[in-house]
Amino acid sequence: MRIAVIATCLGDAMFPQAVKATVEILERLGHEVVFPEDQTCCGQMHVNTGYLDMALPLVRHHVEVFADAADVSVAPSGSCVGCVRHQHAMVARRGGDEGLARAAEELAGRTYELSELLVDVLGVTDVGAYYPHRVTYHPTCHSLRMLRVGDKPLRLLREVRGLQLTELADAEVCCGFGGTFAVKNAEVSTAMLADKMANVLTSGAEVCTAGDSSCLMHIGGGLSRLRSGVRTVHLAEILASSDTERSGAGPSGTEQGTPARDIVFDTAEVGESKGVHP
Amino acid sequence: MTSTDLGMPTVAPDDVGFLRGTESFPVAAHRALADTQLRRNLGHATRTIRGKRARVVAEVPDWEELRRAGEAIKADTMARLPELLEQLEEAVTARGGVVHWARDAGEANAIVASLVREAGADEVVKVKSIATQEIGLNEALAEQGITATETDLAELIVQLSDDRPSHFLVPAIHRNRSEIRDIFLRALPGVDPDLTDEPRRLAMAARAHLRRKFLSARVGISGANFAAADTGTISVVESEGNGRMCLTLPDTLITVMGVEKVVPRWSDMEVFLQLLPRSSTAERMNPYTSTWSGVTPGDGPQAFHLVLLDNGRSNVLADEQGRAALHCIRCSACLNVCPVYERAGGHAYGSVYPGPIGAVLSPQLTGISGPDDPNASLPYASSLCGACFDACPVRIDIPNLLVQQRAASIASHRTPTAQDVAMRTVAAAMVSPARFRAAERVLGLGRFAGRSGRIRFLPYPGSQWTSARDMPTPPPETFRQWWKRTRGAGS
Q: Which CATH code for domain A126-271?
């Protein structure tokens, strides 16, 4: 399948390792991944801060860039896909552009968050990953309640060899990020973060994972500030990890997340031994 | 109604009632967050009721269908509200009630005050009602020399402590029982000085006080949960039975009802009486459901007045998306599941309508006057986590309404704010791939980085982030650069 990767503005500029991992996973599964280079941002920050008029050209740009780019699009972000699927058409209609609204709806119908693409579209739960760490999973609000990804990320994590999944108490409660909420209501955001971090720490995990770099930036930023000894890693990076990884899967990485580095896979071996999707 | 003014619907007045606080949400929340007792009280109360609600909702096999039915009835109601209100007026009048139309808080207060005076009373007992809190009725009556006594236990606690309600269902949710004991010892007439904080003892103390009021009051004042247009039946749903006392013992009953509380048919109550108790008190059925239609000779109040309150509601109705906020049945489920409400408490919202639904209802009722309007900050008092929509028994898409009200907040800026300018600049960069790439290259945050590769301090507004969170240093290579380096151009 020809798959267009939506790097997301945050992923492109700040967390390229999560986007690279997305590409690696899909290529390992035998798919053709393209990166439409004119892509910028889905406009979520503008939409969710209330700048709906300013978001209109961003929606138009996203639709123009991705409409004919591939069979489907994927982003390693529940909230960006949530914006594409639930807000782009609304922004277009509000701006009086019904044609754009319909084009946005058509595109949104084949735009997926990573775990949705893997489980629902590609029919894979075992992506051949190896990650020997204690991991807890935080279901981000927009993947949980906008996209309803349900237990798809957990089904993917349960198939990762070496990974020990620990339960996160009050997992479904927001971490307090909320985009510009984190700065406009910084104190409430921090109070929510404090509870999330307490639950992450009592889970006994050494890694907290999620499907959104933005929420992880918030949780990881708090864990780092506390020198907690727990780090955040994007779900895609865990699914892309393998035991043939060049630098090994030892206790690497920092509290801020794994360092940006190239991950090398032996795709042939993984593909054969685990019988993953061609 | 004598007015024939057909101008644009107006917003609620600024000088009467309690729909707007005096400071923005972040400022008010700052104080609340530091109150450890408040945090503990709210955390305990909301956690308990969240758990109970989840259990009683899970046992209803057709809960989703009920939610959709509730949503459909409310949408139908709003689509023909004027017609239904006139039908309600006819039905109430036919059964011996008198209907009054109040455009705003001031008119409603004046109508109620004159009705109380006509009844020859200077004292009234009140059923718990948010609409009368909204219009500041108690304060308006006091100015006329009329004493209003709240009879709902939590509302009484709030009144005795000269406080404001902070929750729809449990107005004193911010108080624990030892605080309540102190309030009773200080303010409850004739209280036993040996009162303990045992819940039963507290309830008995309030009961002794309230019984005296019930037996002497000649006028009762209530709100309404529902009003069936076809039969003219008004309904109040409660737990304590104190409301039932106010609704049945006095000679005169005055009900102040927001116009959005009308439902088309008596049979619609079937849906809402299943949705409301489970969503609000987490009970399968509430202990007391009172319904009445006009007056019944020889039984209960012999004079019944229904005051239909607009106070900005027509303004909300005029907005095709925003009007969904009028579907609210005040169950408070969205408050109990909201992580922002749980930490900041109801007072931080300024208005009598707190929580997620308040954050979209209050600014619509009052309008937003500009960036410094406290109500302009309310739609931003949410991380848009969506828990409120999942909990709402009538499926109000509160996250979407929050976004729409953020847009309304921005539209009120007469001159661009610093944030407006910044967002415009970013948007301009984001529609141009070349400018976006250039912006990525000059992110330049690295110069604030500590030795560890984490940024511990950023200048304002980044300081709002780094006050509690580190920031990763930008990577040496963006994804775009990596792609170009490893895949070459033209892919």
A: 3.40.50
Distance CA B462, CA A13 (A): 17
Q: Are residues B328 and B458 in the same domain?
A: no
Chain A CA closest to residue B24: A185
Same domain, B307 and B321: no
Residue in B417, B82, B93 with CA at minimum distance from that of residue B260: B82
User: Under an 8 A CB cutoff, do A13 and B472 touch?
Assistant: no
**pTM across the whole model:** 0.92
Mutate to test the interface with B, among A59, A142, A185 (most CBs of B within 10 A): A185
Taking the Cβ of residue A249 and every Cβ of chain B, the question of whether any pair is shorter than 8 Å is answered with no
φ and ψ of B436, to 5 deg: -65, -45
Same domain assignment for residues B219 and B360:
no
Put simply, the answer to whether B383 touches A57 (Cβ < 8 Å) is no
Question: What is the three-class DSSP state of B161?
Answer: coil
How many structural domains compose chain B? Answer: 3
Q: Give me the residues of B, 405-434, that contact A with CB < 8 A.
A: 405-410, 419-420, 423-424, 426-427, 429-433
DSSP one-letter string for B300-360: S-SEEEEEEE-TTHHHHHTSTTGGGGGG-----HHHHH-HHHHHH-GGGG-SSS-HHHHHH
Domain that holds residue B360: 315-411
* Partner-chain contact A182 B478, CB within 8 Å: no
Q: Is A257 on the interface with B (CB under 8 A)?
A: yes
Written as tens digits, the pLDDT of chain B (491 aa) is: 444 555 567 899 989 999 999 999 999 999 999 999 999 999 999 999 999 999 999 999 999 999 999 999 999 999 999 999 999 999 999 999 999 999 999 999 999 999 999 999 999 999 999 999 999 999 999 999 999 999 999 999 999 999 999 999 889 888 999 999 999 999 998 899 999 999 999 999 999 999 999 999 999 999 999 999 999 999 999 999 999 999 999 999 999 999 999 999 999 999 999 999 999 999 999 999 999 999 999 999 999 999 999 999 999 999 999 999 999 999 999 999 999 999 999 999 999 999 999 999 999 999 999 999 999 999 999 999 999 999 999 999 999 999 999 999 999 999 999 999 999 999 999 999 999 888 887 765 554 555 567 888 888 888 999 999 999 988 999 999 999 999 875 54
Asked if the Cβ–Cβ distance from B472 to A37 is below 8 Å, we say no
